[in-house]
Write a structure and sequence with these properties.
By secondary structure, this protein is α+β, with helices and mostly antiparallel strands. The chain contains 5 helices and 8 strands; from the N terminus they run αβββββαααβαββ. A hairpin with a 7-residue loop joins strand 2 and strand 3.
């Protein structure tokens, strides 16, 4: 990601298991394990529990990296990180990650399994938590249909005229 996309990936979770043994994630902000139930096929039922003993050291290492990266984007958080990292709340970390994501300084990284629907709800929650809403960004500028030279803009406002891009990929 760093080399090809020139982005700054920041993992928010680490996996518990991999491939066919993937069974959950460790949330590095809350420092809790989220484990999906084995016999449940939709990925909607899970338990929040303590981090498995064999992952505690790895989770602490990745949490330190996350906290250091988050603190580097907020002066107050940086000062508290050096004084007492345990005083930083999850809400403060979420706010700084959102700010750094919107500004393009970091790319939050999550993992899951679309095939087994594990982690997908957490991913959608992260989209809502960290990515900008239409009200957080400027108006969108595009071409007037049928005229490649004329530019028009649309603000994220219900009173603006509708602008949409419709597409369909079909295999016949």
């Amino acid at each position: 990601i760093k080399e090809k996309l020139k982005a700054n990936p920041v993992p928010l979770v680490i996996p518990i298991g991999s491939e066919e043994t993937f069974r959950g994630v460790v949330d590095l902000i809350e420092m809790k394990a989220i484990r999906w139930l084995e016999d449940e096929a939709t990925g909607t039922q899970f338990v929040v529990e303590e981090i498995p003993a064999d992952l505690v050291e790895q989770a602490e290492e990745w949490r330190d990296k996350l906290m250091e990266e988050a603190a580097s984007h907020d002066d107050e958080l940086l000062e508290r990180y050096f004084d007492n990292p345990d005083s930083i709340t999850a809400e403060e970390v979420h706010a700084v990650i959102r700010k750094a994501t919107i500004s393009g300084h970091i790319v939050p990284m999550m993992c899951g399994s679309a095939f087994k629907n594990k982690g997908i709800q957490r991913l959608l929650n992260a989209v809502c938590t960290y990515l900008p809403s239409p009200l957080d960004v400027d108006a969108v500028v595009g071409n007037e249909p049928g005229d490649k030279d004329e530019k028009i803009s649309r603000k994220p406002d219900a009173d603006e005229p509708l602008a949409a891009l419709a597409f369909k990929i079909a295999t016949d």
